[in-house]
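[step 3/7] inverse_fold.run input=structure_tokens len=399
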């Protein structure tokens, strides 16, 4: 692709908002090297494919030679971003933030280049926000009104539900906005849920620096069950997941999400993505498209050999209805055990409540037979027993 085609792809693929698109397009076509950033509050240590959407966009800018910054909210993570929250977010300690940021960088390196000729720069907003005094904060707050803050959907929802809104949550957009001022960026990229915050940065850049900051937001990727991808819903696909597990999770997404995953979670050329979409509309088997998607993603985060192995393992386990040949085996040292307790202790279920739900839905098997009674006990005196949860979790247990 020539520069114009690459710029058009960057400005359109998976993009919901570009402010202001015509001006940013002109800037990128001029050949000028711009400075852009993605801000992350490291409230967790794991990156999933949903988080990777803006990172993949940052990669495209990096490949074109632009200055890319990954900003960690060392200060803002201790406050808590109210975006998308119907209740106040629990703030983190500086130690938690630092630990999460280290793990996040390690996983982000699967997408971004931190060591090459044009390495991504890492910054932390604690370096400047922690040095501001009360007078600085009051001056910054003078650029906004309470009415502007109350326009946010999540605040309206809390008011209706009679839930509290912390004054510090009004200050969050100011802090994120000041990051743009401090780094003097040309562009900020983020998920759709951050639009209010990045527009606050645009306002501050104009008022304090007399500089136009462009804004770009992206669609949010749904998880394996069709809801917003989240660790809370246990529907996420971590970037550091083992190849076979990653392949299996991708194969479990809803058929209607296949094209969106291709567009947002891969670098597959859009022309190819459109062709896949046309084939599906004509009645092609979604499973074949999903296999291609799974191999593409696993190959990107691991390698082609791992993708081929994961595909074969999936075919053996599900298409041929075979049991894996590498199932872990543990000795429990007891003649009998409670099934639900054992599933929880061995990490096969996240909670007893989830275990009961899976049993009700037929998702728990013992030696190939479905078990629906959460009070089931198993006799381990004579032989080893095969436990299965869902389609991918297996464990042999014995006395």
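[step 3/7] decode complete -> sequence:
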């Amino acid at each position: 692709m020539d520069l114009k085609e690459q710029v058009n792809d960057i400005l359109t693929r998976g993009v919901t908002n570009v402010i202001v698109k015509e001006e940013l397009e002109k800037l990128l076509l001029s050949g000028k090297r711009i400075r852009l950033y993605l801000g992350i509050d490291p409230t967790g240590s794991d990156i999933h494919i949903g988080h990777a959407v803006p990172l993949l966009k940052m990669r495209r800018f990096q490949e074109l030679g632009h200055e890319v910054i990954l900003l960690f909210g060392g200060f803002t993570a201790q406050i808590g971003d109210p975006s998308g929250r119907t209740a106040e977010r629990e703030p983190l300690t500086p130690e938690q933030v630092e630990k999460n940021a280290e793990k996040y960088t390690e996983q982000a390196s699967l997408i971004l280049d931190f060591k090459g000729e044009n390495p991504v720069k890492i910054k932390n907003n604690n370096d400047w926000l922690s040095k501001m005094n009360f007078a600085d904060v009051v001056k910054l707050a003078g650029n906004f009104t309470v009415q502007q803050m109350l326009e946010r959907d999540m605040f309206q929802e809390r008011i209706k539900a009679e839930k509290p809104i912390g004054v510090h949550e009004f200050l969050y957009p100011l802090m994120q906005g000041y990051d743009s001022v401090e780094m003097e960026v040309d562009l900020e990229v983020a998920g759709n849920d951050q639009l209010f915050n990045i527009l606050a940065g645009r306002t501050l850049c104009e008022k304090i620096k007399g500089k136009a900051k462009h804004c770009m937001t992206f669609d949010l990727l749904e998880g394996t069950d069709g809801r917003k991808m989240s660790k809370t819903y246990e529907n996420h696909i971590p970037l550091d997941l083992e190849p076979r597990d990653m392949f299996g999770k991708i194969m479990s997404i809803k058929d209607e999400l296949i094209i969106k995953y291709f567009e947002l979670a891969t670098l597959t050329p859009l022309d190819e993505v459109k062709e896949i979409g046309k084939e599906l509309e004509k009645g092609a088997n979604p499973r074949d498209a999903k296999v291609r998607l799974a191999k593409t993603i696993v190959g990107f985060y691991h390698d082609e050999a791992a993708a081929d192995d994961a595909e074969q393992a999936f075919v053996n386990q599900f298409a041929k209805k075979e049991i894996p040949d590498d199932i872990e085996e543990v000795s429990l040292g007891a003649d009998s055990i409670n099934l639900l307790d054992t599933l929880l202790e061995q990490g096969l279920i996240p909670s007893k409540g989830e275990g009961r739900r899976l049993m009700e839905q037929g998702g728990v098997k013992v030696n190939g037979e479905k078990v629906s009674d959460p009070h089931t006990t198993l006799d381990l005196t004579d032989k080893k027993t095969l436990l299965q949860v869902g389609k991918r979790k297996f464990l042999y247990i014995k006395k």
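[step 4/7] annotate
The chain has three domains: 3-218, 243-319, 329-398.
The domain at 3-218 is CATH 3.40.50.620 (Rossmann fold).
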